[in-house]
Design brief:
alpha/beta; five-stranded mixed sheet; four-stranded mixed sheet; binds arginine; EC 3.5.3.6; arginine deiminase activity; Arg_deiminase
Length: 421
């Protein structure tokens, strides 16, 4: 990251060359749980941290080859060096998480230790009968899911959207993002805080994994466990109120279970200006899950209609995408298994240059058939293979532990800036 220059937020597509990205290196927080707490932590299993970190190192090294990489913990620590920002954030967190008795103690901590506590969790100091009998280990839960930086905030155009998270265990992630973006220390852009806009309406919720910026005038949004229709209505109002002319919000309903369908980016991601990765049973087959097209003209919704599929409506709007099938075309068991392991969750580093997990072999085979060269991350990292001079390629990360947290490369990255195509 460039220490002196502020980065101007700008994301108008899913595939424009990635110039700056926000990530979080997984730490003790991913292990600070017991089997009894895994579900509440939104995990399906407990990760092996040392292996997860080795896998994450690959992601980080590949990202660093191509873009500026900002780490949440570094930015948070810098924010916390400012006394008034520190006090503001501590208060917000402790009030939200009903831990106001810890405010003074937290204020006393230096920025570096406070950063650690806010991410890895604060154990309860048990000095009341209530706490003793509560069967709770933490006053502030660890942020188990923070390595999925995609979800608590999202850059749309020049705006940093602070998402209103669906589960309380992830709310602090978004409060920290708010403090980082509002601090004015690192980024130039607008901050849109959905908590402030939702007037305590508990039905409003949205997460970045559901939000795809297809073009500057097209948002594609998943509606399911993490993003409600009320959340989408709020987003539609906010992002379509500026600028004249037509805009489009396309909504894809998602199943409530299994948990691998939590976000739209687990079933549909863009790989290139003319290619998308799809989970076929949901995106291309007949299903009870609707696709809805909302048309906006000069800031007002003028028409809402059901449409055939994401692919057909996008084609009508001039975005003609060839679908590439997650798990391969021939076997629906392969499709289901690879979708579960985040096989549809791709991050584009540039048009046609994407990252995914090495384990999803049928998906990779399908990409190979469509002209993507399959390259091991290790070869990119040791410079045996050069991303810049390559044409279409998929860079594969070792991934046995990371996907068990419930996501892939798109979930683990929050683009701050992409080249406008
Ligand atoms: N963009 C994504 N698909 N993120 C995946 C997040 C997984 C995480 N365990 C959660 O449940 O919140």
């Amino acid at each position: 990251m460039n220490e002196n220059r502020k980065c101007t937020l700008q994301v108008q597509s899913e595939t424009g060359k990635l110039e700056a990205v926000l990530v979080h290196y997984p730490g003790a927080e991913v292990e600070n749980m017991t089997p009894r707490h895994a579900q509440r932590a939104l995990y399906s299993d407990i990760l092996n941290l040392s292996i997860a970190r080795k896998e994450y190192d690959q992601l980080l090294a590949v990202l660093k080859k191509t873009s500026d990489v900002y780490e949440v913990a570094d930015l948070l620590e810098k924010v916390l060096e400012h006394e008034h920002l520190k006090e503001d954030l501590i208060r917000k967190i402790c009030i939200t998480e009903q831990a106001t008795e810890y405010i003074d103690w937290l204020m006393y901590l230096p920025a570096s230790s406070l950063t650690k506590v806010l991410i890895e969790g604060l154990p309860l100091q048990i000095n009341t009968l209530t706490d003793f009998l509560r069967e709770e280990y933490y006053a502030l839960q660890p942020l188990y899911n923070y390595y999925f930086t995609r979800d608590p905030s999202a850059v749309i155009g020049n705006n940093a959207l602070i998402c209103k998270m669906a589960n309380s265990v992830r709310v602090r992630e978004s409060l920290i993002m708010d403090a980082i973006f509002k601090s004015d220390l690192f980024f130039t852009g607008n901050v849109v805080n959905s908590y402030d806009l939702s007037q305590n309406n508990p039905l409003i919720k949205m997460e970045g994994g559901d939000i795809l910026v297809v073009r500057d005038d097209i948002l594609l949004i998943g509606n399911g466990m993490r993003t409600s229709t009320q959340g989408i209505d709020l987003l539609t109002r906010e992002f379509c109120k500026t600028g004249s002319g037509k805009k489009h919000v396309i909504v894809q309903q998602l199943p409530e279970s299994p948990e691998s369908f939590i976000h739209l980016d687990m079933v549909f991601t863009l790989l290139d200006t003319d290619k998308a990765m799809v989970y076929k049973p949901l995106i291309m087959n007949d299903s009870p899950y609707q696709t809805v097209h909302m048309q906006i003209d000069n800031g007002k919704v003028t028409k809402i209609s059901s449409v055939n599929s994401i692919l057909t409506i996008l084609r009508k709007l001039g975005v003609d995408l060839t679908p590439i099938v997650c798990g391969g075309k021939s076997d629906d068991w392969d499709q289901e298994r690879e979708q579960w392991h985040s096989g549809a969750n791709f991050l584009a580093l540039a048009p046609g240059k994407v990252i995914s997990y090495a384990r999803n072999i049928h998906t990779l085979e399908e990409l190979d058939k469509h002209g993507f060269e399959v390259v091991k991350a290790a070869n990119v990292i040791n410079s045996q293979w050069d991303i810049a001079s390559a044409s279409n390629c998929v860079i594969t990360l070792e991934g046995s532990e990371l996907p068990r947290g419930g996501g892939g490369p798109r979930c683990m990255t929050m683009p701050l800036r992409r080249t406008i195509e």
